[in-house]
Each structure stands twice: as C-alpha cells, then as structure tokens.
C-alpha cells in the first residue's frame, strides 16, 4: 500500500534538488556582488547560515501533517497580525525595536539576532488562513449558488483587508502586491463562479489603470487626497522615463538595464562586472547574473525558476486534499509574482519595488519565509498518501 512507503520514497527529492541549484546560484551571485564595495560585509557566511536555518525550518515543517496546519491556520494568522500590529505601534529610530529602511517601518531590530521582517512570514500564515477559510466554506455550503459565492468572496476580502492595511501603513507597496497576488490566486481556484470573478477583476484592473493614469497626470491629487507618498509617485515617472530622472529615482533602473544589456550573450564571466548597481546583492541581484553570465546565464536562472513553478504545479495536481491544494496554489502565486516582479523591474517591464528574487537575493527574513512556504509543500507531498482516501474530519 502506498501509505507504507519509506522516507526515501515519500521525500520530494526533485524540490530539494531545485533548492540546491538556487543555493548555488545565490552564493555565486552574492559573492560577486559584494565585491562592489557598497557594504564592507561578507554576506556569504550569512546567506549560507540562512539556508541552513531554512533547511531546519523545512525539516520541522515536514514533521507535521497538513491537517494540523489546517487546524491551527487561524492561530498562525492571528499571531502574524498581532506581530504586525506590534511593529506598527513600536517606536522606530536609532536604538529602537522597530527599524526604518527607505522610509518604511517594516523591520524589527533584535539585538544579537539582526533584523526580522514579519511580513515575510505573514505571507505563509495568510495562505494557510485563506486555504482554511475556503475549505470550511465549501464544507458548510456543499451546494454552490451565486449567493454562497458572494459570501465566500466577502470572507476572502475581509481576511485580506487587515494584513494589507497594516503592510500599506508601513508603507510597503511591494509586499502588499504579493498579498494581492496570493488573494487573486486563491479566488481563482476557490470555485467562485466566473460570473462574479470576471467583473471583480475587470473593476480591479480599471482601478489600477486609473491610479496609474492619475499618478502620471494628477499626481498632486493623489498625494493630497489619498496621502500617496511622493517617492512612490516618482517611481512611476522614473519607470516610464528613467533617463529624465537619471540622477535620482531612475538611477537604479538605468544602471540595471545597462548591466544586463552589457552582458550580451555569454556575459563577462565571474567577477567581470563593470556597471555599479546599488543593492545588487539583494533586490538587484539579477543584474549581476545578467552582466556576468549574459543571456545564457540569465536564461538558465529563469529556467530553474520555471522548473520550480512547474514542479509545484505538478505536486498541486497530485494532492487530493482541498486544503493542501489551496495552500499550494497560494505558494505558487507568491513565488511566481516574486520572480516576475523582481526580474521585470530590472528590465523596465515593471516599476521598481522592494521585492527580492526568491532564494537568490540576500536576506534572512525573505529566505526563511520562502523556506517555510516550501516546507508546507514538502509536508503535503510527504504526508498526502497516508490519508488520501480518508475523510476530512478535522475540527
């Protein structure tokens, strides 16, 4: 019987191998990036340490079955919200528990530990809560109607509203967009009728287009009426016309495109960078890959991410438990949006936001948050055959 398979058969070796490839890419890119001299710190031991901690997180996450995560999903969500509220209320500045970076209060500073960004972990807690919500809704309303679909949509919107409001308050627009992408993915797979989804998505796209139009032609109205940050508005202008803002907001984008373009087909080789790009070990790490390894190297990295997303999709299709399916769909959306947004912003396809390239950019919070999410996939793959024919009788 399949449920009696041993650890070797049940462990997701393919996903582990993909993570190993991403670890190698990360170490190579960061080791070269730090030679630019922006920071007098050796980031390699720290990144390796975070990967080690991430491996422990995955191992710990695999120990529990998906039913246990389902049972405590709202507890995780509540803890995440509580931490975000504490962060919002905490004093910030030199020597304070909350840390300001680029005007955003998104970090806790813990003496002896370093900086922790709670929103990175809240992403996974949010996915668990939405998956639990949708599953229990379908259990309570086995017969779908337009009314029950509207009820479910309202529940999802209410669950998303609180973390979104807290993260926008920081303000962290990039992370907020990740939460929106997760919400959209869960709505799509939740079974809500497209008669409802399509008008909602069209309205959302219309609002987004209107905000972009106002940012270009009515920026004072946005700033004065909706309290938009001038820096966020400037990012829109620098995205559309970076060369007119080359000394300010457009500087990073111009240098990023120059670095990637100068790599041409095969790149300049390891350590052959000539273009200075700030934060090229974190948000702009893809510029290092593009410049040093060219189109070929960049394509290899994109292919690795494609394999990751493909494998996650394959695992999702194998799962029999609805809760696990929704969780996996949310994780796929989170990873996909991160990759698309990060790479897109370095080639002027999308505006620049503070979103790292998952598993490659330097950063403990981002890496551990992503490892926690993949730990759930490992757990679902490891345990799902044990109970795939049993009833869903959790509380």
TrEMBL record:
Lineage of the species this protein comes from: Bacteria, Bacillati, Bacillota, Bacilli, Bacillales
BP-aspect Gene Ontology terms: cell division; regulation of cell shape
Record's keyword annotation contains Oxidoreductase: no
Domain of life: Bacteria
Gene Ontology terms: cellular component: cell division site; plasma membrane
Keywords, comma-separated and alphabetical: Cell shape, Membrane, Transmembrane, Transmembrane helix
Species this chain originates from: Paenisporosarcina cavernae
Recorded GO MF terms: lipid-linked peptidoglycan transporter activity
Keyword Ribonucleoprotein: no
Membrane topology type: Multi-pass membrane protein
Database matches in InterPro entries: FtsW/RodA (IPR001182)
UniProt main location, coarse: membrane
Residue ranges crossing the lipid bilayer per the database entry: 49-65, 72-90, 110-130, 150-167, 173-189, 196-218, 293-313, 325-347, 359-378
Subcellular location per the Swiss-Prot or TrEMBL entry: Membrane
Protein's UniProt name: Rod shape-determining protein RodA
């Amino acid at each position: 019987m399949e449920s009696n398979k041993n650890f070797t058969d049940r462990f997701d070796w393919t996903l582990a191998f993909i993570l190993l490839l991403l670890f190698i890419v990360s170490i190579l890119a960061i080791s070269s990036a730090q030679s630019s001299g922006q920071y007098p710190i050796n980031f390699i031991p720290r990144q390796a340490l975070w990967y080690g901690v991430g491996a422990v997180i995955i191992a710990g996450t695999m120990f529990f079955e998906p039913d246990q995560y389902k049972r405590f999903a709202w507890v995780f969500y509540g803890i995440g919200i509580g931490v975000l509220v504490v962060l919002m209320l905490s004093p910030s500045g030199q020597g304070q528990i909350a840390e300001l970076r680029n005007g955003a209060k998104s970090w806790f500073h813990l003496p002896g530990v370093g900086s922790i960004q709670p929103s990175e972990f809240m992403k996974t807690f949010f996915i668990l809560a939405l998956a639990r919500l949708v599953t229990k809704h379908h259990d309570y309303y086995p017969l779908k109607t337009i009314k029950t679909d509207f009820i479910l949509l309202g529940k999802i919107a209410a669950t998303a509203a609180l973390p979104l409001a807290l993260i926008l308050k920081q303000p962290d627009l990039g992370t907020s967009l990740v939460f929106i992408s997760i919400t959209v993915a869960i709505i799509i797979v939740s079974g809500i009728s497209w008669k409802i989804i399509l008008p909602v998505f069209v309205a959302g796209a219309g609002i987004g287009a209107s905000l972009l139009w106002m940012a270009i032609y009515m920026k004072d109205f946005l700033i004065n009426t909706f309290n938009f940050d001038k820096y966020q508005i400037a990012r829109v202008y620098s995205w559309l016309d970076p060369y007119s803002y080359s000394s300010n907001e457009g500087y990073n984008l111009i240098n990023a495109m120059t670095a990637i373009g100068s790599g041409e087909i095969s790149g300049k080789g390891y350590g052959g960078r000539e273009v200075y790009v700030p934060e090229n070990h974190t948000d702009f790490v893809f510029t290092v890959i593009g410049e040093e390894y060219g189109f070929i190297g960049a394509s290899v990295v994109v292919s690795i991410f494609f394999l990751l997303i493909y494998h996650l999709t394959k695992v999702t299709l194998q799962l029999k438990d609805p809760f696990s399916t929704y969780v996996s769909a949310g994780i796929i959306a989170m990873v996909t949006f991160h990759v698309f947004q990060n790479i897109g912003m370095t080639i002027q396809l999308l505006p620049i936001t503070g979103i790292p390239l998952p598993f490659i950019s330097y950063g403990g919070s981002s890496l551990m948050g992503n490892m926690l999410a993949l730990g759930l996939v490992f757990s679902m793959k490891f345990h799902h055959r044990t109970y795939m024919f049993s009833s869903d009788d959790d509380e």
